[in-house]
């Protein structure tokens, strides 16, 4: 599916013990969630030892960097300033501690 910049984007990311990945999704005309772009990579040697919540935040950071073209187009061309990022439970713990 090609990106439709008139519809909202949804970012779904996943973290495993050895890799991170994400999918940029949009709902099609029938209301089904469809993939627009996908990205993944294995952890580097030093990243293997990170705690799971650090791996999850690293995944979120990389997702936003890799897919920034989609978000920048929405902000600068359409004036929108919001998008949704869906995370797992592993990111809640450190965010609650530091907030």
Describe what this molecule looks like in 3D:
With 99 residues, the protein is an alpha+beta fold. It has one domain (10-98): Ubiquitin-like (UB roll), CATH 3.10.20. The protein is built from 3 helices and 4 strands, in the order βββααβα. It has a 4-stranded mixed beta sheet with strand order 3-2-1-4. Strand 1 and strand 2 (19-27) form a beta hairpin. It is elongated and about 40 Å long.
Average pLDDT reading: 78
* Residues in helix, %: 25-40%
Using only C-alpha atoms, the radius of gyration works out to 15 Å
- The name CATH uses for the topology is Ubiquitin-like (UB roll)
How many separate helices? Answer: 3
What separation lies between the terminal Cα atoms?
38 Å
Structural class: alpha+beta
Largest beta-sheet characterization: 4 strands, mixed
- CATH A-level architecture: Roll
List SSEs in N-to-C order. EEEHHEH
Keywords:
single chain, 99 residues, alpha+beta, Ubiquitin-like (UB roll), four-stranded mixed sheet, 3 helices, elongated, disordered C terminus, Reverse transcriptase/retrotransposon-derived protein RNase H-like domain-containing protein, RT_RNaseH_2, DNA/RNA_pol_sf
